[in-house]
Amino acid sequence: MNFLEPFNRAVRRLNSIWKSVAQLSRDAALIREALGRIEARQTATAGTGFAEQEFRVFSQWGEDGILAHLLRHVKVPRKVFVEFGVETYVEANTRWLLVNDEWSGLVLDGSEDNIATIRRDPVYWQHPLKAAQAFITRENINDLLTAQGLTGEIGILSVDIDGVDYWVWEAITAVQPAIVVAEYNSLLGSERAVTVPYNPEFQRAKAHHSHSYYGASLAALVALGTRKGMAFVGSNSAGNNAFFVRRELLAGPLRELTAAEGYVRRGFREARDAEGKLIFPTFEEEAALVNSLPWVEVEK
């Protein structure tokens, strides 16, 4: 009797299950892409407001639809993107453009495990995607971009590192994007132009136990965008991402907004207590806590 046979049968069974799960995952991705194409056609004839244009394929909220809307009116110089803070790139602002519209680009994340996961994803060999591991700072961001061959005009820059986003975007000179997606901290309201103090080692989870102390206000990002020649054109309905278009590329229904005009108060909650457990304060309670912490004023 072969005493290893039960073990071998179990291994074959596990391999079969793994292949089935992998196939289901691929099928699910294809279904998402098909639904995304349907939504893209539907929103092409919808109203021009961002809320009417939103749809999700791979983005966390409605960024896939908003970017599709912007790209119907903005003539980008190259279908190239840079996105950082992507984790495993399963949920991202640029993945839909990569798989559906023949874009290429670079994604950056601070975790080696996340980058290894991206490189194992079929999307990595099926499409012209680069992935590099780096803890991004304002000191290294331009070197990271140029080392990957990213210079000059590009289509989209997506900034979401839950920390010193303002300072990193301010430092970027290696690329000149046509469109920028930048995360803002809605808890800071629409009036204050503030950001966290610069610290190259800033980590949201360590900066304050609430996880609510990070990033910059919308007014700060709008002021920075203005200095960089970028017009603020709106926010997503979740109230955490702002969209900018290079001013000379504004066209169609797109118009420049003030922070007050385009601010959206967020509805989601992600605060934590001192033990790291998720809690559910009101917006006003969480905002009061956040506004009591140290911030740097960037515009008078």
Give a brief outline of the structure:
It contains twelve helices and nine strands. With 300 residues, it is an alpha/beta fold.
General description of the model:
- The protein has 300 residues and is of the alpha/beta class.
- The protein folds into two domains: 1-45; 47-297, Rossmann fold (3-Layer(aba) Sandwich).
- Helices cover 38% and strands 16% of the residues.
- It has helices at 5-43, 50-53, 63-71, 95-100, 112-120, 122-126, 141-147, 165-171, 204-207, 218-227, 259-262, 283-291, and strands at residues 80-84, 104-109, 129-133, 152-159, 175-183, 194-195, 230-235, 241-246, 296-297.
- The strands form two sheets. A seven-stranded mixed β-sheet has the order 3-2-1-4-5-8-7, sandwiched between helices. The protein has a two-stranded antiparallel sheet with strand order 6-9.
- The longest helix has 39 residues, at 5-43.
- The chain is globular, with a radius of gyration of 21 Å.
- The protein starts with a helix and ends with a strand.
